[in-house]
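Hey,
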Amino acid sequence: MKKKECPSCAMEIEAGLKTCPICQYEFPQRDPAIKWVAIVLIIAILFGIFFLRSWF
């Protein structure tokens, strides 16, 4: 199983846990919408660089 390191106590724990069983550190939850917004922005920037550059 995958492991991750707790930034508080440096123990390796299972990647699926939301809190460290040793020190009770709560891992921050990421909003999946942020990932998709970043992907769309990168695609828009690349589109602008490669396709719109030829118009000017």
